[in-house]
Design goal:
Layout lengths: L1 H16 L30 H11 L3 H5 L2 E10 L6 E5 L1 H13 L3 E10 L2 E9 L1 H5 L5 E10 L2 E9 L1 H14 L16 E7 L2 E3 L5 E3 L1 E9 L6 E9 L5 H6 L10 E3 L11 E8 L4 E8 L3 E12 L1
Length: 306
């Protein structure tokens, strides 16, 4: 049983990560259809790389699909279990995902919602062998692409609230219910240090906070965006990190996510300090970069000691 659970979990992670927010026709193009050229002229619409890589991935052309991505492209997956956040860094990791897509009869229907400067936003509906098997297909999401010099340099994929609910329900049916893990026995702290580097954020300290004013040091090492931020939330009962990260596509937090402090924009390459008033736990942290406004990581959840 343990081996079966492990295989299911591994399949779920690989397959759900593979549900990207890209643009693909409802079925693979016929052999006679000419696929988009990754070396298209500058006059080509900004959305062309999104369309091109999607067409080639649908046609099973792994190398063609990868050719539309910058070598150092970042791929964010937001709102999927277990933690609500995953990042693929560079073509090698993206290639692994695409290989699994091609082998799993991946199908996608997409509508381009907007093109603003170098940012393309899409609405995506996807089918995959595993999501069909567990009854969660189709999966709906919003994809946000950043294009530079005709290549995709970043993609953020946000699962919809409706699809996340389906996935959670399906997981509950195919996975035995697990007992809630005990919070680590740690001494609560009133100071934490978070680093933003290589397109995401990290934290290596205790996951227990002392109620009251918590001093936060934010070290922004990345230089490629104009602004960075770190926000903290309490969530209403029944919500977790997957719900929170899926909701980061919205202009403002949902009613069930309570922002603990107004975010202060931080400049690239700077280290700053600020305080957050903490009353109760659990507390969830979300890191951001802009433009465009993207959630680029999460920390926590933190327990809170009175």
């Amino acid at each position: 049983m343990i081996m079966q659970q492990s295989r299911l979990l591994m399949s779920l992670l690989l397959i759900l990560i593979a549900i990207t927010g890209c643009t693909v026709q409802a079925s693979a193009p016929p052999p006679s259809e000419e696929l988009s050229d990754p070396n298209a002229a500058p006059s080509t619409p900004i959305s062309a790389p999104v369309m091109g890589y999607s067409e080639r991935l649908s046609a099973g052309d792994l190398e063609g699909a990868l050719s539309y991505f910058h070598d150092d492209a970042l791929f964010y997956i937001l709102g999927l279990p277990p933690g609500g956040f995953e990042m693929l860094s560079g073509k090698d990791q993206i290639q692994t995902m695409f290989e699994e897509n091609i082998a799993s009869h991946f199908k996608m229907e997409v509508e381009v919602l907007s093109v603003v400067d170098d940012v393309v936003t899409t609405r995506t509906t996807t089918w995959h062998d595993f999501t069909r098997e567990i009854g969660a297909a189709p999966v709906e999401a919003t994809g946000v692409y950043v294009i530079k010099d005709g290549k995709i340099v970043a993609e953020a994929w946000h699962v919809s609230e409706v699809s996340l609910a389906k996935i959670k329900s399906a997981m509950a049916e195919v996975m035995p219910e697990e007992q809630e893990a005990d919070m680590p026995d740690e001494t609560p702290v009133s100071e934490i240090a978070v680093t933003i580097a290589n397109g995401t954020c990290s934290y290596a300290g205790p996951l227990a906070l002392q109620a009251g004013s918590v001093a936060v040091t934010l070290d922004v090492q990345d230089l490629d965006k104009e602004k960075y931020a770190l926000t903290f939330f309490n969530l209403e009962p029944g919500r977790d990190s997957t719900d929170l990260m899926a909701s980061t596509i919205a202009d403002s937090p949902p009613s069930w996510a309570h922002l603990l402090a107004l975010p202060n924009d931080k400049q690239p390459g700077e280290t700053t300090e600020f305080n957050v008033a903490i009353k109760q736990g659990p507390v969830y942290g979300v890191c951001w970069s802009s433009p465009p406004d993207l959630a680029i990581g999460s920390i926590g959840p933190f327990s809170v000691a009175e």
